[in-house]
Automatic annotation (TrEMBL):
The keyword Cell wall biogenesis/degradation does not apply. PANTHER family: OXIDOREDUCTASE, SHORT-CHAIN DEHYDROGENASE/REDUCTASE FAMILY (AFU_ORTHOLOGUE AFUA_5G02870), SHORT-CHAIN DEHYDROGENASE_REDUCTASE FAMILY PROTEIN. Belongs to the short-chain dehydrogenases/reductases (SDR) family. The lineage of its organism: Bacteria, Pseudomonadati, Pseudomonadota, Gammaproteobacteria, Oceanospirillales. Pfam families: adh_short. GO terms for molecular function: oxidoreductase activity. It comes from the Bacteria. It comes from Vreelandella boliviensis LC1. This is Glucose and ribitol dehydrogenase-like protein 1. Keywords: Oxidoreductase. The keyword Oxidoreductase applies.
Length: 248
């Protein structure tokens, strides 16, 4: 029997790093996909190996390389590969009025086309397994200032549901949609407080909340095709305007 292993795209930085380390703690050997974050990947890999797990860094540029080659490399290095976690993401804000074709192509290539193709090749390479897509709680909204990014993530959410049907029961596919958990470094404290005001639970999330969600999806074998929103209820805060709150 081969030791179970996971391929984590974007697994060296931000949320991807937390997922890589959590999966190592859960007994997985880890294949870390990397593009430009080689130094960070070496640091994460060193920590994972210190835990007694094997770790391999696999380079792939989602804008030019073939996704199938990444799956093949991960499977060759770790024959027990049984989990694909799509965490890599491209983000560039712009409303539709300022969106160019190149921006659309980049956002969709990284955020939707590559996860779809990785899922396809993963399903070809393994007998059984799981795919978990990291989405964004913004898919609950129509925030046009993030048009290309958000449309690509909405498409990823729909692909998650569609693929869950196509590849069941052999491959179980779900998604996690984080809210205010690990804001970009340029976000000010005032901005974060303003965001928290719109969260029913009135607090910011932590990476551990997402790790708990990861474990839930890994261990509950009767969950498929679901997008688990981990956002303190922010995405359901859509009361809208009506006569009773008109004067507020």
């Amino acid at each position: 029997m081969h030791q179970q292993a996971a391929l984590v795209t974007g697994g060296a930085t931000r949320l991807g790093r937390y997922f890589s380390e959590a999966l190592a703690d859960a007994g997985y050997n880890i294949a870390i996909h990397v593009n430009r974050s080689r130094e960070e990947a070496e640091e994460v890999a060193s920590g994972i190996r210190a835990k007694g797990r094997e770790c391999e860094i696999l380079p792939c540029d989602f804008l030019s390389d073939e996704p199938g080659d990444l799956i093949q490399a991960a499977k060759q290095r770790f024959p027990g590969l049984n989990l694909l976690l799509n965490s890599a993401s491209a983000y560039e804000p712009a409303p539709i009025a300022e969106t160019e074709l190149a921006m659309l192509e980049t956002q969709f290539r990284v955020n939707m086309f590559t996860p779809l193709l990785l899922t396809r090749h993963f399903a070809e390479a393994v007998q059984e397994g799981q795919v978990i897509n990291i989405i964004d709680n913004k898919v609950a909204y129509h925030q046009y200032p993030y048009a290309a990014y958000l449309l690509s993530k909405k498409s990823l959410a729909e692909m998650t549901r569609m693929a869950a049907l196509e590849f069941a029961p052999r491959i179980r596919i779900n998604g996690i949609a984080p809210g205010v958990v690990l804001p970009a470094s340029q976000r000010t404290s005032d901005y974060i407080e303003w965001r928290i005001e719109g969260i029913p639970l009135k607090r910011q999330g932590a990476p551990d909340h997402l790790v708990q969600s990861l474990h839930y999806l890994l261990n509950n074998s009767f969950v498929a095709g679901q997008i688990l929103f981990v956002d303190g209820g922010e995405s359901i805060n859509l009361e809208g305007r009506h006569s009773e709150n008109y004067s507020l």
